[in-house]
Amino acid sequence: MTEKSCPWEERVREAAAGNSAAEDLRAHIAACPRCRETATVTVGMGKVRAEALGEYATREHVSAAHLLELARMRRTFDSLDTAKVLEPLRIYRRLAVPAGLAGGLALAVWKAASLRALILSLPGFRTLLEGLHSATENLTGASLVGLSIAAGSGLLALLVLAVVTRAGRLES
Amino acid sequence: MSGQDEQGRPEAFEAFYGRTAPSLWGYISRVCGDAALADDIVQETFIRYLNHVREDLPERQRKAFAYKIASRLLTDEFRREKTLSLDAIGEGKAGPWLGGGQTLSTDLERLFGSLRSRDRALLWLAYAEGYSHAEIAEILGLRAGSIKVLLFRLRRSFASALRDIGYHPEVIP
User: How far apart are CA B96 and CA B161, in angstroms?
Assistant: First the structure.
């Protein structure tokens, strides 16, 4: 036992809170300064607590049923508030994919000439075209170029879609 | 089961409320010194408890959660009150924090009321409710090591002050 710690302290606190102690505990309290302080403070705080409880008993309080109702209303309003806050996000998620596709398509139409030149300038693209041209004699070169541009545009649209979807997930 | 589910078992909440509310009200009213504010904080505490605390936890833990919620509400109130102007203090609006809202009926209450609010909270939780240092640290948002040091000094000074006003309760029957 030291002045800073005493293994009896919890027993002393419980005994003081219950206002009764065994003989050995009383003897210990008389000999241990720390436990004397603990007993003094516990009994004092017990009186402070008793006064507070007495004051509580004289006051009017909300009933448990009323608190349950208030809590239910709070949850309802909280969920409404949450829905209101999330509404712009919900609209954004609904519009993101159609808007992305429409934008991609508009971009492809607007920049069709540049897109075509870009695709034709891809390394090996002309060689591929020539190989396809020789392999498919029934198709004209012009239709093959058109087909390739359409495929390129499709790939670009898929890329735009992937980017928009990814952005939408990050936003959410 | 969460506090929300407790709506389905109102009798369980009613019993818990009946056991916990008086001491929680006592804690708040004695720490802040304002009975009306204690009413408000206790009400708000139980509303939050119902919406956030799981009912399947042990009662001691749920009670500690209620104390934690109440302590945070009280801290928020202290912070809000600090923004009041000196004019408001002159009009008595900040009275509770200056010890003006409470009737101190005994020397003991007067002595307790003269302590700092944090010290009142520590003494109440440790010696009126019997919470451990770890539980008090969780309730007040402090480190358990700090609680031990603070309570050591506080117990010594409060015991000395109690003896000065004539309390010698070490003679337990």
Answer: 23
Q: What is the dihedral of CA B144, B146, B151, B152, to 10 degrees?
A: 110
Distance from C-alpha of B26 to C-alpha of B39, rounded to nearest angstrom: 10
Cβ-contact A9, B132 below 8 angstroms: no
Short-list A62, A56, A58, CA closest to B43: A62
Instruction: Convert the pLDDT of each residue in A48-96 to its tens digit.
Output: 999 999 999 999 988 999 999 999 999 888 888 888 888 888 888 889 8
**Separation CA A146–CA B4 (nearest Å):** 63
User: Residue B118's closest CA among B83, B93, B150?
Assistant: B150
- Residue numbers in B near A4 (CB within 8 A): 152
Coil, helix or strand at residue A62: coil
Q: How far apart are CA A111 and CA A53, in angstroms?
A: 80
* Nearest CB to A29; choose among B6, B170, B173: B170
Q: Verify whether the Cβ–Cβ distance A40 to B17 is below 8 Å.
A: no
Run of H or E including B155: helix B144-164
- What ipTM goes with this model? 0.80
Q: What is the DSSP string of B4-64?
A: TGGGG-HHHHHHHHHHHHHHHHHHHHHHHS-HHHHHHHHHHHHHHHHHHS-TTS-HHHHHH
pLDDT tens digits for range B122-154: 999 999 999 999 999 999 999 888 998 999 999
Determine whether the interchain pair B173/A20 forms a contact, defined as Cβ–Cβ distance below 8 Å.
yes
Whether residue A44 and residue B168 make contact (CB cut-off 8 A), yes or no, is no
Chain-chain contact of A40 with B105 (C-beta, under 8 angstroms): no
- Report the chain B residue with the minimal C-alpha distance to residue A69: B7
Q: Residue type for B38, please?
A: A
Q: Residue B92 and residue B120: Cα distance in Å, rounded? A: 22
pTM equals 0.67
Task: For CA atoms A4, A8, A14, A16, give the dihedral sign.
Answer: negative
